[in-house]
Amino acid sequence: MLWRCIKLLENFFFSKRRVVGVDGAQMELAGGNRLLRLCGVLTAQVLAFVVYYEIYTMFTSTHTVHHVDRLHSSSDIKYQRNLEPVAFQLTLSTLLDQSNYADDPATQMWFYDHVFDHPQAELRVLQTLELDGAAPLLSRMRPRDRDITLVTQTSADRLMAVERTARTWTGEMVVAVHVMARNETEYVYKKLSVLHWSIEALGRCRLNIYFAMEDGFASPEEAAKALYPVNAMRNIALRMVTTKLVFLLDADFVPNPGLHESLTEDEQTYQEILNRTIEERQLLITPAFEADVSSSSNSRSPSLEIPTTKSDLLRGWRNASIDCFHCARAPNCHMSTNFERYFDPSTISPYAVKYREFFEPYFIAAREFIPRFDGRFRGYGKNKQSHAYHCAAMGFRWMVLPEAFVYAVPHPHSTAWKAYTGTETRQKMQIQGLYNRFKREVEQNSYTSPSILRKN
């Protein structure tokens, strides 16, 4: 639309045309004199700016337009804006229909990349039982002198994975739990209180649990339809860490038993980890694996048997019952780990790997230097990839720990995963548009880490 307006103005002011003079003779004008040309250029620029501004203000605001069901269904937004009635009013849906927007993937991608408002998710950490229905569950165990905090986040439907990890990890662990309504909050709090007490009784994992809620929804039903604010939840958990080292992991992964002890019990080893992460700015990768459900040795449901040693892992790797995580479906996510070298018996020291775009490993890093996650990413898709891209742009080095690994605990796919990988392209394009914008911001040094915690 904007380009057509400009071309029409150019043709009007600059194309050759014949006019009749006062004496009746025909004269040919080639775009007029310099003054006419200048007026034409200024008029075209002003009108182009007005048209663009009108479209831009219709497309964007801090409150996303609610009326376009095809573009912004209630499954992923909570904002709405009432359009004031005017003499000449085009709703956004009408504008898109008239321009064949919905049928043009390139235009869709441009819209999500350059125009669509991707707001930061704003979360509130619940502080008191009386007012919020939940409060932080903090460990009473003494902090260790040498420690690494495992940092994770989860929704209320994956608490089993948190328990499995807490029973395996012997260091500090921070979990941010997302809740949506008061009745759910009270139920989840009671359930996690029992879990926290049982983990404390073991005296191994120093577990700290925080509850976070996103306000502003009109009803619990509306809150339930919003996409999970995954990166904002990761930032909440990172905000609560006090140790020098953090281990960034998703809740549905379990680290190999003994990993924490192998990195912290010996003073020399621990100091080497500190030197690598702080002085040399290295990110220490823990390779990720999962059950290979495509193998004939496995049923359609992944096995719940989790390897506990690298020998178990190697055995499963050789008989094709275990595969690197997502390597069959999305090889760019973890193939950069170089699994051939990882399983090579001669590999006894951390080895360097090259970052390739879409790499999204789990790793140990220095809390002081690691960037925060972009809280605009919600649901499934590119939330960790954007963080790894930022780390690579900051010059971090990628090293693989040869005796470490994490293993995916099977769980049902989320609604966001089904929407992202299904035939409907809207969510995928929205995430891709945000990812494109994020990359530009990083490359232009205009990206700033989001605010991690909204003050109460």
TrEMBL record:
Localization terms from the record: Membrane
GO cellular component, as recorded: membrane
UniProt keyword annotation of Transmembrane helix present: yes
Location (main, coarse): membrane
Entry-linked InterPro entries: Xyl/GlcA_transferase
Domain of life: Eukaryota
Keywords annotated in UniProt: Glycoprotein, Membrane, Signal-anchor, Transmembrane, Transmembrane helix
Its membrane topology: Single-pass type II membrane protein
Example GO molecular function: xylosyltransferase activity
BP terms from Gene Ontology: protein O-linked glycosylation via mannose
PANTHER family given in the database record: GLYCOSYLTRANSFERASE-LIKE PROTEIN GNT13-RELATED (PTHR12270:SF52), GLYCOSYLTRANSFERASE-RELATED (PTHR12270)
Name of the protein described by the UniProt record: Uncharacterized protein
Source organism (scientific name): Marchantia polymorpha (Common liverwort)
